[in-house]
Amino acid sequence: MRFHGLFIGIDRYASTEIAELTCARRDAVALEALFADTLCGNTVLLTDTDATLGKIEGELGRLTTCSSEDIVVISFSGHGSPDHELVMHDSNLRDLGGTTLPLDSLASWFSKIPAKRLVLFLDCCFSGGIGAKVLQVDAVPRDLRSTVHRLEELAGEGRVILTASKSDEPAYENPRLGHGFFTYHLLQALQGAKEVVDSGKISVYRLLEYVTKRVIDAARLIGRPQHPTLLGRIDGEITWPVFVAGSHYRAAFPETSSAKATSNIFSLSAFGFPPELLTAWAGVIPSLNELQLSAINDYGILEGNHLVVSAPTSSGKTMIGEL
Fold this sequence. Notes:
Helix content is 33%, strand content 16%. The chain is built from eleven helices and 13 strands.
């Protein structure tokens, strides 16, 4: 049994008529790196100019030669269209039918892939909304069959699809997080969020529950609806090891391997704080305490993460707020 992965992320499009995205490429790079570090096997990353219709169909064709005992994971982050199509780097608004990958065509490819288990992550949407990953077109969809129906055709026995949102909802990306809401929380879950780990393994079904709740909450904060969904079924529980960000991930995101903060307040220079500020802090605070170090090193307060701190008076909460 081998693992095969195909990871696609498109921010930049050949056509100037297609709006650029900000996080789709990063979504694909992060997922490919994590899977390559953890499951090894054979992974392929296609982003921006490499993510053409021809190259993507070529990789789908390659997957048709895998073994029936293999596991295949495919992820797509980018624009969807109101007419149930995945928009490629070289897609043309004047010929969407001939230059995109319709869900019908993807279903046809899936039927030819003999893998025992196939998981598809779709961080795109087929419903409009400002800031959403949907192609803005004036045309009315040509085929009125629902997106749900088309996705159900993709799913089935041995096939599981996790979508970023319901078929009638937008899927949003957040430049502050550096990812789409869906992929960001998927990455957190894969790396061992306690809600999804059981006996040292990740349950894919628990993963969906975790991602769904976190995405709903994140979208609610910006006043928008977004509910990830699961389609398809695989007999028995699907489990993966807890994912580890190794050499591939560190190479893709070198900032994640930066030095940890220590009790010495000047260790914060590694995070970009200017010497003048550190000197001012050092004149008031002799050292960082365990609460503050935990906020930095364990909970990512300097990476833009939200944090609620409940601690006694004079425990260091003000410093965390300043950080």
